[in-house]
Amino acid sequence: MNQRRDVPPTLQTGNGMRPRSPSEALEPQRAPQRPRNIKVRRESRVLNGLVRVFSGILTIGVVTMFVIGGGALILNHVYERPGPLDVTRTVVIQKGDGRIAIADNLEREGVITSRWGFVANHLLRNYFGRGKPLELKAGEYEFKKAASMRHVLETISEGKSVLYKVTVPEGLTSQQIVERLKADETLTGDIAAVPAEGSLLPDTYRVSKGMARQELLERMQAEQKRFLDGIWEKRKAGLPITSPEQAIILASIVEKETGRPDERDRVAAVFINRLNKKMRLQSDPTIIYGIVGGQGPLGRSITRADIDAKTLYNTYRVGGLPPGPICNPGRAAIEATLNPASTTDLYFVADGTGGHTFSDTLSEHNSAVQTWRQVEKDQKSDDAAEPVQVKVDVKNAAKPDGGVKPAETKGDTAKASETPAKPADAKKGEMRAAVREAPPAAAPAPASDAIPSPPAEGSAAVAPAAAATAVSTIPLPVRKPKK
Question: How far apart are CA 80 and CA 148, in angstroms?
C-alpha cells in the first residue's frame, strides 16, 4: 500500500504544484491580485516632500555636529596647549579696546599664536559658560613663559594686572592730593572736582596702570568712610565731639601739630581738655589754612596781623572747632583723636629733641618754654661758630667799598639780637613758641611785624612798645607776668 507523503509548504508553488527543482523553489512567485472593492491609496507628494526635507535637515545636523565637535576639539587644544612666549613679557591693554583689538595686540606681542582662536574661545566660553561672562579689562599684565591661552584669558578677565604703588602722605589738603595724582603718570583721566577737605584717607594704594584718577579719589573717600564708621563706635566716652565730622576736624589739627606717633594721643588730649574747659584751641595751622585755604604752606612767618585777622579758621579768634578740616588726617591721627590719652595737660612746647614737653599749669609751661629758649640759643651759637664761605664778586672787587653793599631793608630794621622767624608750617611737629624774652630795661623797643606772644584769654592786649618777638611755635596761649 502506497502511503501519500505531504509536500512541505515551503516547497509548494503558488498553484499548489511541487517545484521541479530547488532553483525553481527559490524563484519569486507572482504576487496575488488585489482584492476587489478595495480603494488604492496614491502616494502624497506633500508628505514625500516633507520626508525628504526632514531627512536633509537631519543629515545636515549630523554633519554640523561632527564639524562643531571637531572644531571644539581643535579650539580646546589651542586653548590648553602652552603658548609661544619664550620669556616673561608685559603687555598693556588700553581702556576701550574690544576683543579683536586685544587679540591683535596679544598676537603682535607673541603672547598667543592665533587671534581668531582667542576670539573664538572668548565667545564660546561666554556663550556656553556658567556664571558671569568673561569681561576683558584694561591694565598692564605680566604673562609668564609659555603661558597658555587659558591663562592669558583668565588673567585679563579677572583683572590680575601689574600693581603700582601710589602713596598719599598724611596731612595734605585735598587740593594738594589732587595735584599729586595729576603728576602721577601711572594714572589717567581728569578729575571732575577737588573733593571736600578731610574726606580722603591718606595711605599707600596699589593701582593698575591706566587707572582713572577720579576712580582712585572715590576709592580714597570710600576707605575713609569705612574706617571712620568702624572706629567711631569704639570712641572714648565723654568726648566733646558729637559727630564723625567733628572728629575729622580735630584730627586734622592733631595731624598738623605733631608728626611723632608716640605723642599724637597726648596732643589730642591737650585739645580735648581745652574744649572741655571752653578754652580756645589757638592752633597756628588753623591760621595758615584760613589765609591760604587748601593751597598748602604759607611760605612765610605768621605775623601779629595774621593772628588778629578774624577768619572762620583762626582758632585764636574763634572759639571751639573751626568750620571744617584743615587737611586730610591719617588713621593714627583719627584714632588718637577718638581715644586720647588720659591727662590733664593744657600746654605743650618743643623740648629740643624732636618731642614736646607737656604741662597742665601755666607756671610749668613757662618753665618749659624757658628751657626751649635756651636750647634755641645754644643752637644759634653753634650755628654762628661754623665758618661761613663768602662768595666774592670779582667785578666789584676793585670798588672802594669792596663790592659789598649793605642789605636794603624796608621799614624798621630788626636788631641782630632778635631771633629770626621760622615759618610756622615749615616742618610738621615743630611747635610754635608763644613766649617772648623780656628785653633789657634800657633797650628801646623797636617796632616789628614778628609775632608777639598771643595774650591769654581775658588778658590785656600787647602794648605797642613791647619788645621784638620770635615766631610763635606753639599754638597755646601764655600769659605775660603781671607787673
Answer: 6
- Three cell numbers, residue 213: 584718577
Q: Minimal CA–CA distance to 281: which of 226, 238, 307, 318? A: 318
| Cβ within 8 Å of residue 479, ≥6 positions away | 362, 455, 456, 459
Q: Are 482 and 464 in contact (CB under 8 A)?
A: no
332: burial class by Cβ within 10 Å (0-12, 13-18, 19+)? Answer: middle
Contact between 451 and 302 (Cβ < 8 Å) = yes
Helices 45-80 and 149-157, axial angle in degrees (round to 10): 90
The DSSP symbol for 188 reads: B
Which among 428, 423, 356 is positioned nearest to 172, based on CA atoms?
428
Apex CA 296: angle with CA 453 and CA 263, to 5°? Answer: 60
CB 307 within 8 A of CB 454: yes
Q: For position 201, what pLDDT does the model report?
A: 96
Q: What angle do CA 323, 326, 331 make, to 5 degrees?
A: 115
Set of cell numbers at residue 452: 608777639
Q: Give the separation between CA 143 and CA 87, rounded to whole angstroms.
A: 9
Amino acid symbol at 339: N
Q: Is the pLDDT assigned to residue 32 strictly greater than 60? A: yes
pLDDT band at 120; cut points 50, 70, 90:
confident
Mean model confidence pLDDT for the chain = 77
65-74, 92-101, 102-111: the lowest-pLDDT one: 65-74
